[in-house]
Amino acid sequence: MFENKFMFFLFILIPFIMIIFILEIISYKKRAKIIAGSNINKIMPYYSENRNYLKMIVYVIAFIFVILALARPKWGIETIEASFKGRDILIILDTSYSMAVKDIPPSRLDSAKFAIEELLKSENGDRIGLMVFSGSAELLVPITTDYSSIAFFLESVYPDMLDKDGTNISNALLSGISSFQDDEPRNKMILLITDGEDLQGEYYSTLNKIKDAAIKIFTVGVGTKNGEPIPMKNNKGEIEGYMKDQSGNYVISKLDEKRLVEIAEATNSSYMRMTGNKNDLRRFVDSIDSVEKQENSKEKYEQKKEHYDIFLIPALILFAIGFILGEGKFFNRLRKTSFLSTIFSLMKISLIIFILFSSHFLYSNEPADETKDISNDIKKDKIIKDNLNGGFFGNREFKKGNYTNALQKYSTADNILKENDLAKLYYNMGNSYYKLEQFDKAKENFDNALLFAKDDSLKSQIYYNQGLNYFKQQNYSQSKKMFKESILINENDDDARYNYEIVSILEKKQQQQQQQNQQQNNNEQENNEINEKDKEDMLKALEDKEKKENREQAERNSQKKSGRSKYW
Q1: Which residues, other chains included, contact 240 with Cβ-Cβ below 8 Å and sequence gap of 6+?
Q2: How does pLDDT run across 260-308, given as a tens digit for each residue?
Q3: Do residues 343 and 424 both lie within one domain?
Q4: Same domain (yes/no): 395, 446
Q5: How far apart are CA 379 and CA 356, in angstroms?
Q6: CA-to-CA distance for 169 and 213, rounded, in angstroms?
Q7: Is residue 549 part of a domain?
Q8: 428: left (phi > 0), else alpha (psi -120 to 50), else beta?
Q9: 388 within a domain of the structure (yes/no)
Q10: Structural domain boundaries, residue 448
């Protein structure tokens, strides 16, 4: 019957409210006796102790009604007819064997499935379909608003589930385009999720057909550029080994972004690399504003009927009655001198504001306004405040130095983020990883931020912090390049210029050191070669000397023998 039962904990406050009332009544009574003595009825005609107790009872009952209203009472069924405005989105998911690689935990395919599930939870009016492909393609769920059906079929998806091996992207895209129910491309889009590896089919002729269809194809890369071996599993799902080529070497599956970027650019769309962060895919789809939303057919659905007004309206009336009971000229003048009365008046005003605003936020479906501004940390890295949900609390945790908590808050930012705001979120996540010294993940998030960034000021800051990220890894050449990009966008950034000069000096020293190390290695190698030659010469000389000594000894022995025979 009540949806927000946790609101019942507010009943704990009732005894404290009654104590405040009683203390106020006792305090007021003492002051009245001091002022009026026995002539209280003549001097203070507005004074009434019973009225004060009645006011207490009225306010307590009103507060009880407020708690019941905030608990959202629901009973009965109401039928609602609603029309949804959204897009037609076909998700084409790669199920080839390379999607079993675990370079994005728990695996590429499982990460993609989890991201799709998060997208389905948004229920933002879009109609969604699901197609899987490897060497062939199969439409599992046609375009629909029944997200539960998509989630059901998504659970049954596993690597190499189709009979034909390979990654025939051409066949999958053409099948996906033909699966739409009409030829109007304005509200249609394809979301291709794959590692982009070993794409088969007539790729370039397919690109021309895709352009003719005028349906935008947004691509999502799953995996890492370094890659990992492809696991081979038995019927129980246990890993028995790893795939090898004909030469007996392990097959390393890597993310191939080149083709995915080409496909996206061919349809004036965009590409995103999946990092494994929560709501990555959802934010990417929400940021797409180049595909129009159109009104879909009206649908009817049933839900429990809200009855909070039954309690809220009497509560407001009782508060008004309580306020009237406390009025009176002399009574008001006396109450101004009371500290407890002042506190209680503030409590009344706060409570009324709480009622009005709580009812709005609990029952309104409109999104809260976002606050956006930029604040820079001194000379080092820069953090951007984006929205009032996970982004706001993430920034607060970041400033406290709780970078892991900041990442968790950033990943739960559920407000609809457009391209530049999405870039800010990735940028701040990159800063958090940078502080945690997870520089590879920081680089990935900075790269994603650059994909969505539209504001030059933001781009300059992204390049700046990416330069610091490379600097920490002692990759001075890339660091120098990033600072240079930052300066080209913002010529007045003195910090970037200073860092550029420092990194240039360090790069030269690093190159000199590398040359010295190379020269030293070469000298050592030459010395080793000389030493080896000297050893050979010494051994040969010793061998010759030994042979000569043996020969001389043999001659002396021979002479002695010949002398003895003569003598005898």
Answers
A1: 232, 233, 234
A2: 888 888 888 889 988 777 777 877 887 776 676 665 555 555 667 888 8
A3: no
A4: yes
A5: 44
A6: 16
A7: no
A8: alpha
A9: yes
A10: 380-508
